[in-house]
Design goal:
CATH class of the largest domain in chain A: Alpha Beta
Distance between the termini of chain A: 41 Å
Low-confidence stretches of chain A: none
Oligomer: homodimer
Radius of gyration of chain A: 19 Å
CATH topology of the largest domain in chain A: Nucleoside Triphosphate Pyrophosphohydrolase
Shape of chain A: globular
Number of helices of chain A: 3
CATH architecture of the largest domain in chain A: Alpha-Beta Complex
Number of strands of chain A: 10
Strand content of chain A: over 45%
Largest interface: A-B, 70 and 70 residues
Structural class of chain A: alpha+beta
Helix content of chain A: 10-25%
Number of domains of chain A: 2
Order of helices and strands of chain A: EEEEEEEHEEEHH
Chain lengths: 180, 180
């Protein structure tokens, strides 16, 4: 089946600091017309910082869900910034480490039904202490935990952030693959 | 550190079909004020349909990313609908199967920095053929693939939908755990 949807027109709805919203009128595969509501996002990175089988996390209040969540360090790409440069910057800002070794694990779309947000996932190792320079308006606690314990928290539902679950599961698979 | 952010006021920006947008003025932990832009979403389910080590997927055009993606069946909760009922409905609508066995694997927030969207993940087994009744405005192809092949597509970056990656990795871990 030809699945492509052609844009007939596009209406800007909101131009914010973190995202923009638009509504597209589209031509559907059966020739009828429909609407697609879209949140435009500039993309982000998330990093699994791993030292001696221990992972560094941040605890952060997430206003959209009204909860403090345990997450791997993450942040939005600045205009023109490469994902790898963003990963190094966010790691320094959030937990005060500079990674001597940085590997891309994957990238994924967080919720492609309504947003184009892409998240680039990295594994950071051989961390060097560097003074943390916090982002303005960002408040967080740093937490260190064995990878095995973190994976249990994924399995039992204590870790509920999507990118953190994906990152930890990919790292566990990656370590299992290279140890074979 | 006390991380909570108190809402000082809330401004509605957009009331759409798929999501709503608001902007909250908040009191930050250090006593200063800031803004949080939030996409309100009613929540969704995603299902890994597994039969004889084969997983059913849907190929679907995703307008926000302008690509056809390979994803596990998924859909939005209707008002008042339980996640399990939604999982059964979506499975029938999208691939034409009714699950005799349905287990919740996890739930997660897709991108808690800007949206409250929660995704309930299920494993569906013992599938019974049922006539698919497609959702209006939804166009998709059904694809069947061995779980092992799908996991390779996650590892090599051919599957790029977040919920699909998380679902497949959790199912692989779940099957490994029960086979031990």
């Amino acid at each position: 089946m030809v699945l492509h949807e052609k844009t007939l027109n596009s209406k800007k709805i909101y131009d914010g600091k973190i995202f923009r919203v638009r509504r597209d009128r589209v031509l559907l595969p059966d020739g009828s017309e429909g609407y697609r509501e879209i949140v435009e996002h500039g993309g982000a990175v998330a990093i699994v910082p791993l030292v001696d089988e221990q992972v560094y996390f941040v605890r952060q209040y997430r206003k959209p869900v009204e909860k403090v969540l345990l997450e791997i360090p993450a942040g939005r790409l600045e205009p023109g910034e490469s994902p790898a440069a963003c990963a190094r910057r966010e790691l320094t800002e959030e937990i005060g480490f500079w990674p001597r070794r940085l590997q891309q694990l994957a990238f994924f779309y967080s919720s492609p039904g309504f947003t184009n947000e892409i998240i680039h996932l990295y594994l950071a190792q051989e961390l060097k202490v560097k003074q943390a320079v916090k982002d303005e308006g960002e408040f967080l606690d740093v937490v260190k935990m064995p990878l095995a314990e973190a994976l249990k928290k994924v399995a039992c539902g204590e870790i509920t952030d999507g990118k953190t679950m994906t990152g930890l599961l990919l790292v566990a698979g990656h370590l299992a693959a290279i140890s074979q």
